[in-house]
Fold this protein.
Amino acid sequence: MSGNDGSKVVTVIKPLKIVDISDLWEQKTLERYYFDTKKLKE
């Protein structure tokens, strides 16, 4: 039973971490995309 509880905690924490990382990655990718677009236009 304690094993199930442990996996539950990991399941809850993991998605939160993945969301944070993907959000940061997406933000950086968008910033880089806009930066590249501005560079190409100039």
Remarks:
- The chain has a mean pLDDT of 70.
